[in-house]
Amino acid sequence: MNMQVTELLAEGLKREYRVVLPAAELDAKATARLNEMQDKVRINGFRPGKVPVAHLKRLYGKSVLAEVIDQAVNEANSKIIDENGFRLALQPKVELPQDEAAVNEVIEGKADLAYTVGLEVLPKIEIGDLASITLDKPVLAVSDEDVEETVKRIAESNRPFSAKEGAAENGDRVTISFVGSIDGEAFEGGSGEDVPVVLGSNSFIPGFEEQLIGITADETRTVSVTFPEAYQAAHLAGKAASFEVTAKTIEAPGELSVDDEFAKSLGLESLEAMKEQVKSRIAQEHAAQSRNKVKRRLLDALDGLHQFDVPPSLAEQEFEGIWNSITSEMDTQKRSFADEGTTEEAARADYDKIAKRRVRLGLVLAEIGEKNNIQVSDDEVTRAVVERARQFPGQEQQVWEFYRKNAQALASLRAPIFEEKVVDYLLEQAKVTEVPVTREELYAEDEAEKAA
């Protein structure tokens, strides 16, 4: 179709055009569509295939022309994109005439259609020298001590207990019900029924278990504690609280032999087989943490190699997602930016940088994956769906159907698989040096990781 295209804006990654589509051509396309309809439309009073086009035009002309206009706009936009070699960040933003009289003239075929289309394009990305990337990869071997300690923990968690008379001692298991309050008011998450606690296990707030020593069955005590400053629920951190605690039962720990019989009670062939399984699991945990660390360093290096402006709308979308998550969490925890040692303005600036970094790295990873033909197979996505379904016992079929019918949800599973495959490729290109570290070093979280 002939069209007139005038560039209105070319600023950074934004483009805007005024497009004029001739009325005569739109009308000709509509007439051709009506001619096609002649053989298909059934109208009382006319034999099949004998309905005059003029009559069809009176009945369906406006709706057919509206369809033709929609198709012509899409074709015109595609032509602009193809001729300029654009890759779009978002779908074209089309602004059609709003004046009712002008719209009617176009629909009635009396006037040309003039509209504007706004495009936001992806930047041209020049991939840097990937072989120049040098990375230290922290590695940690599994020690016999780690294995022994883990087996001991598993044994402790499976230690038998039996009912006892009299007062609770350190090591005893006390089943309690409790109601917690701060400044005389009960707080959310501060109560529980029939909760077992092993005295001396340090599984409760510091000071809580010690105050239960000497308690007897059916006795009620007031336990006063202070939540740690670094408590995970920020709205409780550092607060003094009191708990009305009632002991339901007192149980003494039984003997536990860590041997083949114990391993068999857990469904394993022998104690040696149990230790091998524990060693394998710890090794997987170390490997995953090592991978996280080296991936973070790889992304930092990629970010250093590629600095370019990102599409504003993509950055805004990413920022909004981050910001809504952060503010929602702060509202839940009843914390302010002042509590975090910052201001809303400074926090916005920080998260804006993080959003742009994420978008930039996403574009770089996508470009590297495309240039090197890195793809995610349908089998890999299917395995991810099966793994996801397993996380919802009893609802596997519903989860499977959800992903089968929801392309966007399926894409959300495909994306991280693609990213990991590109990361694998990049780690092969980079110079990676394995550096032995301690457990503390491997699992320490640095400031950059906290920010990310």
* Count of individual helical segments: 13
Number of domains: 3
| Helical fraction | 40-55%
Find the count of extended strands (DSSP E, 2+ residues).
11
The unreliable regions are none
Radius of gyration: 33 Å
Write down the secondary-structure element order: EEHHEHEEHEEEEEHHHHHHHEHH
Which architecture of the largest domain would the CATH scheme give at its second level? Answer: Orthogonal Bundle
Q: What coarse outline follows from CA principal-axis ratios?
A: elongated
Q: How would you name the CATH homologous superfamily of the largest domain?
A: Trigger factor, C-terminal domain
Distance between the amino and carboxyl termini: 50 Å
Query: How many strands, what sense, and barrel or not for the largest sheet?
Result: 5 strands, antiparallel
Mean pLDDT: 90
Determine the strand fraction and express it as a percent band: 15-25%
Q: How is the CATH topology of the largest domain named? A: Trigger factor, domain 2
Structural class: alpha+beta
CATH class of the largest domain: Mainly Alpha
Catalytic activity: [protein]-peptidylproline (omega=180) = [protein]-peptidylproline (omega=0)
Subcellular location: Cytoplasm
Protein name: Trigger factor
Function: Involved in protein export. Acts as a chaperone by maintaining the newly synthesized protein in an open conformation. Functions as a peptidyl-prolyl cis-trans isomerase.
